[in-house]
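Much of what follows relies on a compact textual record of a protein's fold. Each token is a code from a learned vocabulary of local backbone shapes. The record below shows the convention in full.
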Amino acid sequence: MATQNQFESRIQQAVQYKTEGNQHYKQKRLREAISRYHWALMHLRGLDPAEPTPLQAFGGEKVKLSPEQTELLHSTECDCYNNLAACLLLSEKVNYERVRDYCLKVLDRQADNAKALYRAGVALHYIGDHDRALHYLTEAAKLCPNDVNVKRYIQETEQHRSQYHEKEKLMYKGMFGK
């Protein structure tokens, strides 16, 4: 089990890796940025007292965290997942399912995170889940009403959704002869 000193050391190291990841991201070195964000998340794993660990079954105790420590842990975790999603969206071959999953982890803790809402919407747009994509993009638009990228994806998603529904109508019309 992590002691208070181990917690401090691990969170500081995670913040350092996140900072290095941000520097790599700014320099367009996505592979290095992704690596640093993963390292940061590895250092955070098991620190959240709200999350069960296998060792608790053997009587292990978790460190009690102050509200400030809990906030730092959660915000660092959310930043890393959000930044991982940003990196993946810039990759040559985008894994939209992973982008969606990372963004949903952020939104579980920070429901009003505009970047995570936008990125989740983009990922769902490309996955083809247009209804959910519109939900997240509309929420992002409420928080960032002047963001042209959000507006563009809302329009594209609405177009894809209406085209899909039009194809569906034609298919059913052909099936039932009406």
